[in-house]
Amino acid sequence: MTTLALTPQGGFGGALARTFSDGGTIMWRNLMNVRRNPELLLSATVQPIMFVLLFAYVFGGSIGDDPVMYRDFLMGGIFVQTVAFNSAFTVIGMANDLQKGIIDRFRSLPMSPAAVLIGRTMADLAVTLLGLLVMSLCGLVIGWRIRGSFTDAVLAYAVLILFAFVMAWIGALVGLISGSVEVAQSAGFIWIFPVTFISTVFVAADRLPGPLQAFAEWNPISALSDSVRSLFGNYQLRPPTDAWAQQNPTLYALISCLVLLVVFMPLAVAKYRKVAAK
Amino acid sequence: MATGASDIAVRAEGLVKSFGSTKALNGVDLEIPKGTVLGLLGPNGAGKTTTVRILTTLLRPDAGRAYVAGHDVLTEPDKVRRSIGLSGQYAAVDEHLTGAENLYMVGRLYGMNRSTARARARELLARFRLTEDADRPAKGYSGGMRRRLDLAGALVAKPPVVALDEPTTGLDPRSRIDMWEVISELVDDGTTVLLTTQYLEEADQLADTIMVIDHGKVIARGTADQLKAQIGGERLELVVDDAADLPLAQQVLADVGSGEPHVDQHTRRAEVLVDTGTKALIEALRRLDQHSVVVNDVALHRPTLDDVFLALTGHAAEEAAAESGTTSKKKVKA
Predict the structure, then answer these.
(1) What is the predicted ipTM?
(2) How far apart are CA A257 and CA A251, in angstroms?
(3) Which of A222, B171, B299, B330 is most enclosed, with most CB atoms within 10 A?
(4) Which of B194, B229, B264 is at the close of a domain?
(5) Could you tell me the pTM of the whole model?
(6) Which residues from B are below 8 Å from A when comparing CB atoms?
(7) Which of B229, B248, B282 is the last residue in one of the domains?
(8) B239 and B211 share a domain?
(9) Are residues B218 and B212 in contact, defined by beta-carbon separation less than 8 angstroms?
């Protein structure tokens, strides 16, 4: 038999290059899946619009002092919340791959195990980018504006994208732990509700009762919301509290994202190796 | 490919693997000479899939060693993965990708460039009679087509060894025969094949050597003919019209058969293992006719997996699966 010319590359550089090239192939595969199932994009686009409209027009009048100002405040939070909720895609996608036999195929190939996770998270990042675009347009319609500098606006989107990447890796781990698509469907959402609601996404921290206030002050979701608001030059409902995280939202948001990434990336890869070996 | 001058493509020594308290494998040795087919025969939960998963690096054994094309599955998994293609029980295809895209993806993951991967995909689709459906999502494929696509995926890198884990389980008879043809062609090309199956007929058709496995242990090995000789060829079964004739039928069967006849009063059925096939059948009917015994039904069965098990272990294959427990069965197979 003839052997096909395959190019196994040696060394760390070669391994890294292969990981990214394999990751690219898996990302292509996942995006083709989205293309063939456009209904997947519905919850990534329609759901955030629903949240914007519900909070802007149902709760808005009761929460802020001025509904117009509240809408300006709200968008920064909803951006972050949307990104957090989108991690459910990764949870379900990962559980789905595990449940079908496709992971066996991947594991029987001489490819990097991290590539499966990189391909999954990168593809989901692309879906989240689409969600952010739709949300921004929706925000413009209800009166939200980017009032800061161009650089700050770019930085705001960069923070959101970094957070989306972090959430995708957390989602990958949750999906790997779930065991089945049915479990993943609830596990993907349940924990995100308290984490996003006990924060400054919809309200100011100082209005919350004691323990919840402390949680909200140090919740990275709060820091991300406040950071995005200040970078977009949006209205803040109330001056920040004295907590360091509240005083330095962008710095705290970036530190949180990096710490979460450093913790969850290796955890997800380790869990993938373990789960796939069953 | 293989290092050294060995003509053994796959070798495993003392494989042990437990899932919790269940011993899925309890000291399995095997050897597959290059270019031959080893049929691994056994009921659900016997350890067939576990063996395949160890040889394809999907699972690490608790003890024992295994080599594929001269490479150690434990220390050189990447080289093993380049040498062995896997086609599993649950077709590992992405149902939203087309047949062509599925194979292209596998080619890319083997490190092929885009055009090589695309060309190889087309080549395999033609070989597996999937060209017409190449650009349809695999979701719309029949069970047989999915299996063929999955097998094509295992062959993308032209591996010298292929592991086929129950390639025809759940297929209709027509697709099964299609699959057998495809596997035969593979063997004609010189590929070494590890085939697991629950069907004796399948192992008989395709395998050079058969290994019977039960409770994680090898209980018999040999060619199909050797195994059949061991279990006494075929089974002659007849139903008499009057239960009073059963003792006579039993006597006749004892004379023509190669073993102790079994008689069931309730169904008026008598059966025995025979070595001489139709000769024994004709002789039995002739003698019963001489005594004017009315025979309602008569059949000559080729030995089944159950017969092999009955002969080798004294219990039926289904009992073996039931004994190993549903939970452990699930784990072993999952």
Answers:
(1) 0.85
(2) 10
(3) A222
(4) B229
(5) 0.81
(6) 1, 56-60, 78-79, 81-82, 84-86, 88, 90-97, 101, 105-106, 108-112, 116, 120, 137, 150, 153-154, 157-158, 160, 189-191, 331, 334
(7) B229
(8) no
(9) yes
